[in-house]
Amino acid sequence: MLFPILGTLLVLLTSYTISRSLLHAFGLNNTIFEWFFTIGITLLLHVILIKFFLWCFKKVENKWKVDYKWEMIAIFIVFAITGSLSGKLAGPLVHWIGLDSENVHSAVYWALRILLIFPIYQILLVFIGWLFGQYQFFWDFEKKMLKRMGLGAFFS
């Protein structure tokens, strides 16, 4: 029950954050409509996002072959954490190597940073998947992805 509750709360937080951004975009903050707008848009977005995520679950349910819905939620959370974290870690790693945007051309800097994201992502995907109890799923996912990229010789 942890993942459905966590997922619902995170979708509610996301809906609230988006509604507050829209509130500021429309210039309705500090008006009489502020709380009506925030609560209404938050609830509307929450329902829309929950329906969208349930639709996504149905699309990948047969493809991923998981036994429980909470496993799919855990898998989505792992993908989200891994993608964000690998993007965040690539910047300091490029800086540590000594290739800042001040030292090299910005095209070279961003190309190196994007290239570094790939191996960081691969390592983090399996590790964070293991932390969430989905090691086997992500290990199989890694092998399949690397084989499709022509790097399957490492797993033969």
UniProtKB/TrEMBL annotation:
Give me the segments passing through the membrane.
35-57, 69-90, 110-139
Instruction: Kindly state which keywords UniProt assigns to this record, in alphabetical order.
Output: Membrane, Transmembrane, Transmembrane helix
In terms of Pfam families, this protein maps to: DUF6787 (PF20584)
The DUF6787 domain sits at 75-151
- According to UniProt, the name of this protein is DUF6787 domain-containing protein
Organism encoding this protein:
Allomuricauda ruestringensis (strain DSM 13258 / CIP 107369 / LMG 19739 / B1) (Muricauda ruestringensis)
